[in-house]
Amino acid sequence: MTTDANAISSSSASNPSGGRRADSIFRRFNVGDALLGLICRTSAVVIALMLASLVLVLLSSAMPAIREFGLGFLVSREWRVNELERPLRDAAGQIVMQDGEVVTETIKPAFGALPVIYGTAVSSALALLFAVPLSLGAALFLVRVAPTLRIAGPLSFLIEFLAAIPSLAYGIWGLFVLAPFLQTTVGPAFQNTLQNVPGLRWMFFETVTISGKLVERPIPMTGRDMLCGSLVLAIMILPIVTSVSRDVLKAVPRTQIEGTLALGATWWQSCIAMLRYGRAGLFGAVMLGLARAAGETMAITMVIGNNNQINPSPFAPAQTMASLLANEFAEASEGLHRSSLLYVALVLLAMSLVFNIVARRLVIGTTSPAGH
Amino acid sequence: MSILQRAAWVSAVGVSIVVGGQVASAGEVRLGGAGATFPAPLYTKWVAEYEKVNPSVKIDYRSIGSGGGVKSITDKTVAFGASDAPLNKKEIDAMGGEDKVVQFPAVIGGVVPAYNLPGVKETIKFSGDVLADIFLGKISSWDDPRLQELNSGVNLPKLAITPAFRTDGSGTTHVFTSYLATQSPTFKGEVGAGNQVKWPLGQGGKGNEGVAAVIQQTAGSIGYIEQNYAVANKIAYGSVKNKAGQFILATPDTMSLAGDGAAATLKGTILRADIWDQPGEKTYPISAFTYIILYKDLSNIKTADEAKALVSFLKWATSSGQSLATQMDYAPLSDNVRKAVDAAIASLTHDGKPVQIK
After folding, report:
1. What number of other Cβ atoms are within 10 A of residue A186's Cβ?
2. Where are the domains positioned within chain A?
3. What does the alpha-carbon distance between residue B164 and residue B178 come to, in Å, rounded to a whole number?
4. Which residues of chain A fall short of a pLDDT of 70?
5. ipTM of the complex in this document
6. Relative orientation angle of helices A279-295 and A114-140, to the nearest 10 degrees
7. Inter-chain contact B218–A78, Cβ cutoff 8 Å?
8. Torsion angle, alpha carbons of B34, B35, B37, B39, to 10
9. Record: contact B189-A222, CB cut-off 8 A
């Protein structure tokens, strides 16, 4: 970023000094230049203001929840909108009675974001696990193989076309095609082969707390679960990871590749060297994919099962930050509930911001100076 | 009279005719209502039918959810609000106290346990405590002895139960959880009742359509949805054991009886009654009123004519409009309930004067 800024400032410094004598009058009164300059500056300021006001509005609306829960919000598991009224129990676990009546205690609503942070982290990580190998393979193919076959153009177009499909379409496909397939074929297949493997019981059984007792029960295979959500996310982040990786690999200097070949590397070894050379940029591409996966809303809401729980099984329903907002925001009228949802939105925004900043630094660092 | 004067006279008459015409079209009354989504199809039908009876009245009902309806009427941005849950004390105070508010039931709805059990033709029977234990995770398979005991003669499969629930705040969840809380102390203490609760397990869906999607796609699933939504989408639902020990299937008739049981408790201008688990041989136990909320003095409405139009519409809806309710699979108010509703509507005033209806 600093090199870009230097380049612009140095060129703007050298230009006027050269042209000032020749057509200074014309330049000074060029309305078009002045107007364009004004429009550009205003646009830049407006965009910055928009982001700033977004953060401010989120922060101020989330304030009641921030005051109430503080940072403990991020590690608390409980998300309960309603009040609970239950019999008061003493230290020995006995129900407290007074004048022949059961004494009740009222438990206030509680809001904690750990289940949705977990859901977002795991679904995004699994999506990367599925998407990154595919994307890197496709990018390598586009850079090293496709040009010789003269299909790089159409293939790139197809991959980028995936990015233009609305997320709702992915959601509907996930709900009506992928989920039933997982429910009837993939899930049971895993269940039959792995169920009795020692150490894998957690994949197929869940424990539910009822009246303080832990009850174990099989997880029903529904197809709308963490696995389905991650698969849909993986397909959705494929295009961006592939196209950015392709640009990063294109920027690897020809001399590098020729150098490896000259040293006797096989085609495979030179590909590996290429990936290693562009690793910072490739990591940036992955981070961009991660940012998209973490923020995806419509499609994930349709396929992840929408249960605010932390369950390690990929066959259990889960919830992400974005899907929680999509599910609950419209009907959330209660002050603290709404405010807690906005707190979640703030966390999501902060996370996306960090991913994007890291990714930009890494991608710009590799593609611009080395490319030319 | 000169020609000039005559011309002036004619043009004056012409102008007055034009002005008169404008007055006539301004006689059209536009009123707004907002709130609950559950009765929205019926309210929209009422509005359309009422326009045929009284073409000058145009009512616009927006289904923005019960919470939004209460907020809209409190802020006076609509003529009336609609909510599945009755106003609580705090909400009444926000509107200015008990003597400033009118609330009455408009129609009755029921919540049904809908399920997906391939190969089972019979209607499954449930009881309140069995339903509670299914949603708590205690009963996890369809061939559980307690389900078999209720459904002797039905070949229940060995199939895992997937409970399905609403993820958005809704009156449907309020009714269902309130009923289960009366049936199971464990449910009351661990899940509780409310528009949105924390379910210990299962799959979430947004809206009736979200829950219905889970049920239709998953063999062995059970979820709670509105009775008329289940009927319209041909989703199988079970009968529920009522207070008299009978297994009753939700129909407009059996849900209507639930309202009738509470008629005696409806008094004053703020009518409310929880009508789940009412006595009666044929009463469906998971029923609830959905309410219309107004300011007692309709000063949020500009003219007396508009107030009159609103009151006529409400009277029509709670009398002649009730037969439309039955057609659309809502349960009508019984005669006893309508008496209380009529009294509440009669208490409405505009700028302190009673609203006169011919």
Report:
1. 17
2. 2-74, 81-111, 113-371
3. 17
4. 1-29, 334, 365-372
5. 0.80
6. 140
7. no
8. -80
9. no
- State which H helix or E strand residue A8 sits in: helix A2-28
* Domains parsed from chain B with CATH numbers: 3-109+258-354 (3.40.190.10), 110-251 (3.40.190.10)
Q: Which of A82, A206, A328 is opposite residue B193, by nearest beta carbon?
A: A82
Please indicate whether, in this complex, the C-beta atoms of B168 and A331 are within 8 angstroms of each other: yes
Hey, are the CB atoms on B137 and A217 less than 8 Å from each other?
A: yes
Q: What angle do CA A352, A353, A357 make, to 5 degrees?
A: 115
How close A362 comes to chain B (CA, Å)? Answer: 39
CB atoms within 10 A of CB A372: 7
Query: Which of B91, B136, B176, B217 to probe by mutation at the A interface, max A CB count within 10 Å?
Result: B217
Which tens digits make up the pLDDT trace of B151-171?
Answer: 999 999 999 999 999 998 888
Of A85, A328, A333, the CB nearest to B167: A328
CA distance A187 to B252: 41
CA dist A320 and B231 (Å) reads 33
Q: B79 Cβ partners below 8 Å, 6+ apart?
A: B31, B32, B33, B294, B298, B300, B301, B306, B310
* Type of residue numbered B231: V
Q: Which residue has the tokens 């209660």?
A: A334
Q: Residue A314 in contact with residue A156, Cβ under 8 Å?
A: no
Q: Which residues pair with B239 in a beta bridge?
A: B125
- Cβ distance of A333 and B202 shorter than 8 Å: no
**What is the rounded CA–CA span in Å between residue A287 and residue A362?**
9
Q: Is the pTM of this model over 0.80?
A: yes
By Cβ distance, the residue of B137, B196, B220 closest to A208 is: B137
Q: Do A317 and B221 touch (CB under 8 A)?
A: no
Instruction: Tell me the per-residue pLDDT of A149-184, one tens digit each, with 9 for 90 and over.
Output: 888 888 888 888 888 888 889 999 999 999 999 999
- Whether B204 and A305 lie within 8 Å, measured CB to CB: yes
CB-based burial label for A73 (10 Å; 0-12, 13-18, 19+): buried
Q: Which of A209, A210, A324, A325 best probes binding to B when mutated, by most B CB atoms within 10 angstroms?
A: A210
Question: A248 to chain B nearest CA, in Å?
Answer: 41
Does residue A58 contact residue A352 with C-beta atoms inside 8 Å? Answer: no
3-state secondary structure (DSSP) of residue A245: helix
Cβ atoms of B194 and B174 closer than 8 Å: yes
Report H helices in A186-320.
187-194, 226-250, 254-262, 267-277, 279-295, 298-303
Best CATH choice for the domain A113-371 from the list 1.10.533.10, 3.40.50.2000, 1.10.3720.10, 3.40.50.410: 1.10.3720.10
Q: Tell me the torsion sign for CA atoms A125, A130, A131, A134.
A: positive
- What confidence score (pLDDT) does residue B26 get? 53
Question: Which residue in the block uniquely carries the two structure tokens 């870009």?
Answer: A4
The helix (run of H) or strand (run of E) holding residue B57 is strand B57-63
